[in-house]
Amino acid sequence: MAEMNHCERVYAALERKQPDRVPLFECVIDEKVMQGIFPGCDYYEFNERIGLDVAGLNRSSWRKDNVQFIDAERKLFKDKWGVIRGFGPESVPYPVKGPIERPEDLKTYRPPDPEAADALGHLPEVVRRYKGKKPITFIGRDAFFDPAHLRGVENFLMDMILNPQLVHDLIEVCQSYDLRLTERAVKAGVDIVVLGDDYADKNGPMMSPKHFREFILPGLKRAVDSAHAAGAYVIKHTDGNIMPILDMIVDTGIDGLNPLEPVAKMDIGLVKKRYGHRVCLVGNIDCGEVLSRCTPQRVREEVRKCIAAASPGGGHMLSSSNSIHSSVKPENYMAMVEALREFGRYPLSPGLFT
To answer: Which of 52, 54, 156, 247 could cross-link with 151 by S-S, CB 3.0 to 4.6 Å?
Structure first.
């Protein structure tokens, strides 16, 4: 098969077609890992040298260098939503306390301005560098993370039973920002919107399928439709065991599903058989035990098994099971990339399946 460029390769996979090789996909790679592989590089140099098939902001929605700490010792700050968050070892700060402590607090609450000049971060620079060369990704939100963080996750989940109207109202307020921001991002040059709200842990969804259908699914569907209408592909990211709600997620019309977490018993081969004709699978090398603690030889074997299970016929992009976080061994991520080069070219080698 003739060599494809990055855009052709990724779009073919997202359309469940067979590209020249399995694309390498990742939205967030920690600085520590990048420096461990290519000392002194920035994200753009790393992206080119490692051979990523996509490019993006390579961070969460927050930066550590532009926040005002309300508790510097505990590294706590208040974000633009009014949520108190704390920085830990990873790039994504964790929510500590939301501003909607009582239902009546929502009456006077105002979400951030999606038209703000800095809302898209350094996306314009990424677009200038990569538009037309590599698909540009953007991590957006759908209907869980932002409203849950405003209220506090436990409170938000309890509200599904005790105060259902508040749940609907919180989602509506948050989507007034999130959907518009995603539209702006696509108009600015984003090609792939990754909806990054996690619905589950390794045991199953954080809410019942009934409550998912009632509260979260309509907002997810609006987010998918909005991104599609703006002109982007949509990949739904959620960690955890999502099998009880997977039919509903796929029915929203997403183009890709990520990351199919192995430790949550998300069997990428089984998902391929059931849904591979409808959605591109983006995953799923375990970034916990395998990429963080095992040997490069074990990583190579896991990549081989993943490609054998998910790549036949196309419709698969290789990625980690969440992100390349700070605990990932640089040599293991390099082994993952090299194994993709070894096993991921079409037509797939018969030896891959032995």
So the answer is: 156
pLDDT bucket at 67, cuts 50 / 70 / 90: confident
CA distance 315 to 12: 7
Helices 296-310 and 330-343 sit at what angle, rounded to 10 degrees? 40
Helix, strand or coil for residue 30?
Answer: coil
Structural domains in the chain (count): 1
- 104: DSSP letter: G
- Inter-CA distances, 197 with 216, 223, 336, Å: 10, 11, 26
Any idea which residue has 């199919």 for tokens? Answer: 260
Predicted pLDDT at 261: 97
Residue 23 lies in domain: 6-67+101-353
Asked if the structure places residue 19 within a domain, the reply is yes
CB 227 within 8 A of CB 185: no
Q: What percent of the chain has pLDDT over 90?
A: 91
- Measured distance CA(49)–CA(135) in Å, rounded: 16
Q: What is the CATH number of the domain that holds 181?
A: 3.20.20.210
**93 found inside a domain:** no
Cα gap 349→354, rounded to integer Å: 10
Statement: residue 66 has pLDDT above 90 = no
Long-range pairs for 203-211: beta carbons < 8 A, 24 or more residues apart: 203/240, 203/241, 203/264, 204/240, 204/241, 204/243, 204/244, 205/240, 205/241, 205/242, 205/244, 205/245, 206/153, 206/157, 207/157, 207/160, 209/244, 209/245, 209/248, 211/160, 211/161
pTM for this one? 0.96
What does the block give as tokens for 323?
Answer: 């992100």
Q: Is residue 243 part of a domain?
A: yes
- Report whether 163 contacts 81 (CB < 8 A): no
- Long-range contacts formed by 163-170: CB under 8 A, 24+ apart: 163/103, 164/214, 164/215, 166/103, 166/106, 167/215, 168/215, 169/106, 170/100, 170/106
CB 299 within 8 A of CB 274: no
